[in-house]
Amino acid sequence: MNIRFHPPVRTVADLLHRLGDIPADRVRFNPVPGTATVEDLLRDENRRCELVDETLVEKPMGVRESLLAIYLGELIGPLVRRQNLGILTGADGTYELLSGLVRLPDLAFVSWDRLPGRRLPDEPVPNVVPDLAVEVLSASNTLGEMARKRGEYFKAGVRLVWEIDPRARTVRVYSSEVAFADLTGADTLDGGTVLPGFTQSLVQFFAELDRHG
């Protein structure tokens, strides 16, 4: 067994810290951390996992997070289709951002120019980098985890990252790993040059959480 951590990981605490101080119950130990591959990721279809440092890391998603991700896709989708800008994928859309690094944004937009042949990829885990990556924060997400993830997104070539906090009802818009703007209920989310023409009132967006029968 060849475990490939650099620098070496000696304890579970070291591993969790490396992954952003995430809860231990999100780390899969079959296969052993440091030995997992994309094939292992595809083999386990029962859970949503990312592949980070040759380790399978579960990505749980609650009802509120899922609702907001789907709703945002419903809002963006008509613009993307009307202008034929590219494709949108949901929480199961899997991307190999860098060699051996697989992430699952809760929502992603990929322009046609980033897709080989300007067509949908056939591979289940394509080596494709989205223009926009959206992360809807769950209770188990940590500051360290999200900081690492943002760094990887922008290193790979993602142009825009939106972090949505359902509890605070805020959106943090990153145009680079360190440049961001915090939006609250009084603000409008803007697609900028990535999704030209897209705007959405956050008051109206988060009101979806209050809808009832």
UniProtKB/TrEMBL annotation:
InterPro entries: Nuclease_put_TT1808 (IPR012296), Restrct_endonuc-II-like (IPR011335), Uma2 (IPR008538). SUPFAM superfamilies: Restriction endonuclease-like. This is Putative restriction endonuclease domain-containing protein. It comes from the Bacteria. It comes from Gemmata massiliana. Residues 40-199 form the Putative restriction endonuclease domain. Pfam families: Uma2 (PF05685).
